[in-house]
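Blackboard transcription, Thursday session:
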Amino acid sequence: MSEARPLQSVSPLAAFWRDFRRNRVAVVALAVVVAIILLAVFAPFVVPQDPYDLKSLVLRDARRPPGYVGRDGMLHLLGTDSQGRDLLSAIVYGLRISLEMGLMAGAIAFAIGAVVGCSAAYLGGRIEALIMRIVDVQLSFPAILLAFVVAAILGQGKGQLILALVFAQYAYFVRTAHGAAAAERQKDYVQAALSVPMGGWFVITRHILPNSLPPLIVVATVQVASAISLEATLSFLGVGLPATEPSLGMLIANGFQYLMSGRYWIAIYPGVALIVLIMAINLTGDQIRDQLNPRLRK
Amino acid sequence: MASFIIRRLGQALVVLLVMSMLVFAGVFVIGNPVDVLISPDATQEIRRQVIAQYGLDLPLWDQYLHFLRRLLSGDLGTSFVFNMQVGTLIAQKLPATLELTLIAVLFASAVGVPLGIYAGYRPDSIAARVIMAVSVLGFSVPTFWIGLMLIMVFAVQLGILPAGGRGETRTLFGVPFSFLTADGWAHLILPALNLSLFKMSMMCRLAASGTREVMLTDTIKFARAAGISEATILRRHVLKLISIPLVTVFGLELGSTLAFALVTETIFSWPGLGKLIVDSITSLDRPVMVAYLMLVSALFVVINLCVDLAYVVLDPRLRHGRR
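(Written on the board underneath:)
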């Protein structure tokens, strides 16, 4: 947007928000993301039933269709699963686990990527070449395969799964950070800072990293969404989370066997929740990407 | 040109060697296959015999050297579970996966690229908005979930297509294929569609964003000023300019589709490589895992090599030795 700049300068964040608001789809998507995060954080206070409190489960209420009223008079809006759990409650708790996995993996991969990518661009030479070669080779393998192999090697568990997701995704961040940082490294102000001389670490953290953030943020939105999707896929294949941590993927896997007999809701609704979450994150990320892409600002 | 190819070949070999070490080391960590092979009440003597027979008593590096030597001579070992040559086992499963993957990728490109170019050419039209919205859907929704939906709609509710298996196959060059029979197609269509939707969305979005950027460039302004028709501009200029990322993606996606076949094959019980590796990980069938991973690595290295070479052909800046 090359409008005449108002005399009173607007803060970059406010300007960003002003542009963001113009895309109504993105605003709705952002609202959905925020709502889901709030729902996940306050899950115990929102849902009608604690799905993992075994005392509250009634096996006779198992596999009931949506709208079924349980023996204790509780309305199961989305039906119940194979153990008589209220599906709505199970989904909210599942969202919580899925989000946790996605955000944790995304944050760790972001940190690794930013540090390694910027350092590689700063150091240059052989180290840069070596790091980028490793990253390139890794990027040539699909994330799902890497995550699947690592998850299978490490076994089930939250920590193991996060490690597998990070391993599958950090390379995207390294490459992005490196690309942005290498461009910054050439610019005069960085050269000037280095000739003063300022310490290398100082230049990286104060100058190179902040200016490399925009592309990293775009990658982060995409990668968090894909981490959530990967986690669900791995859990569905049986190499993800253990049964004690029922993420959305596992809920879907549990419902798969009932799909054939027409009890669709056990697998469908967790999937719908998963898709809404992933789509909302992607749509928000799309808008951020378009706003940060200088080539579209014409 | 020749030196470029030789250098890339050398790099490919190094990558393969490193991969073989990583794969071997990684797979060694998964679990002790002795527990799978030998029943718990076997005598110590039998235990020792079996361990020695499979070479599991040797030090790790020795096992690796043996493994490498056998790999180079084309012997991939014997599956612990199926008790047959891993090479034979993989050769049996490979056609099913290749068939599924190729059909999925071709379908994705043939449908995705034209839709994407249109969406990028008229970004404000309703059709473009619908295309982009659906592509976000295809991009966002996990493959396994789409698979479940397809099964639910077409196999359970409508009951018009089978939910799993390969159906009737016909032999071509001594290899059974599904796409040669009507029943085979009926079995093929759901998994292929499932596998292709993600790629299709990806191709579509890539083509759309590429077209959008290219349409703003001077190239197009000049072409229009020269009076070249819009159809020719799209075909001759836009398609050419956006083809570089598309070729990359086509190549890489061919490989990643093989990996995603893991999920699709599991859902649709398609008897291919993906199902084999999922099963072999649960049963700790080490030779099969190693062979599969090496095969996939080799495949990726070859694909990357081809993509690099395609770049040289497509991008004159690279052809004239800027690198």
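Lecturer's comment: The longest helix of chain B spans residues 230-267.
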